[in-house]
Amino acid sequence: MDKIKVNVSLVSGLILYSCMNPSEPIASLQSQLITTIDTGGKCRDIDFNDSLIIAAADTNSFQGYSYSFSNEGIFDYVHEFDGSGSVGLHESFVANKIIMSKNRKYFLLMDKNEGLYASQHLSINNTFTHIYSGSDNRDYIQSVALKENENEIHIATLIKQDSSCTVYSKKFLEDFHFFEDENGILWFDSEVNSFDGFSLDASDLFLVDSLLFIADFQLVKMIKENSDATFSYYFSFDIPGTAETVHADSNMIFTGLGDNKGCIISPMDTTVLLMNQITIADGYSVKGIHKQNELLALACGDDGVLLYTCHSDGNFPLVSEIGRINSEYAYNVKIYNLNTIFVATKVGIQIFTIER
Prior knowledge:
This protein is an all-beta fold. Helices cover 0% and strands 60% of the residues.
């Protein structure tokens, strides 16, 4: 294991940016690249807990790192594990997406071709259980969402069929469908519920409480999971472009658009308040979205990461531009805290501090 220490205060290359929209100057942002963690190539996605960062590292499967921030500003990380020695993953596994459990010691790993897998633990020589199968169609599994509590793990997946996409939902009940001890989690099969009616171009989904939000080409669709585990249609609305990703937080829906159409923010009450929608990041294609408290981050491919403050005043989203982080090509972004941003890029995990 290689142990790396980086002194945040001594890293050179303080970067000043003053333009988020290609044609409109805005307030400046000072961002400092702490380090780039080499994941062996492209890092398609990342997730973290209070001690580990795990990368979905494309053809390099997954890469796990322990990390810490000291009081003196030292960022320390150690490569802990990867796909070598794991049981259950094919040698050709291409990791596209990862979700770490916030309550237990496991993670979900997705390959659009091979399917969705759940790990047994968070260490070396892992064992993976196949949750959903893949096919020869490399776009078979589009996305996955996770919700859990102390007794239940709920996994929702967007699956491409021959002529449409379908949402599948599995609920794993403790002591019935999974068993947890000091060695990790043993997974057992559970019943599957499904809901049809999404286009072949549906690309992403996000799960909050009992609502599923689906980025469905030029629509955002919402379905509700009922108490008997069945689904029902809830709401849908048009968007002015092709949806690439969707996120929901604090009664707001964030839809990332391709073709330089930006991000649509749609406030919610009992329904979506279309008259109060706003567009941000016009001129950018949005690949990934993360929000923590009032900080909103958008991963925008070659244009790096755009940052905003965002909160809701009643039923109106209030958004202020902060600035742009000039990362390498950004596939996704995760906010560590108000001053630190993790970016999944084409060269690995890039970690930035920001000053406002």
